[in-house]
Amino acid sequence: MHALVVFFDAEADQAVRSLWRRIGARSELPPHLTYAAAGTIGPKVRAELREDLSRLWLPDVWLQTLSATGSTLQLGAVVDAELLAVHSAVHDVLAGRVKNPHGRHLPGTWVPHCTLVDGEDDEVRAAFAELHPITPIRAKTREMAIVDTQTGSIDPLRNASTAPR
């Protein structure tokens, strides 16, 4: 599966990693927020995303809601008009051009978050108890990229230093 993600600035990255250390969690990827996922996001679509993203401002995200869904503990992002506008723009490019889009990332169903731990129910409950109450984290976008979730390879689409002002 391919996922379109944003990686956070150094300060937010370290804040999330600190939470991971507190609960003994590990991740193959740096802390991130997933905008979209599909079976395949091919080269042509990636080129279109690069073009469209070059014109978009990627908003900061406030990670401040601790929640457990099933066997996942996540740090939820505050949803505002700017975040939804970027999400919608991304999906306008992806619509009808990717194989097997993942439903939970589509507009109207997307719950933006950074995963803290995937585990057994008791592990999630213990992690929640350890981290609650949570101190909000302001996460600035460092980079937007396509991640191959099977191999871990990262294809950068846009670096924050190339963002429009």
UniProtKB/TrEMBL annotation:
Superkingdom assignment: Bacteria
Pfam families: 2_5_RNA_ligase2
Protein name (Swiss-Prot/TrEMBL): 2'-5' RNA ligase superfamily protein
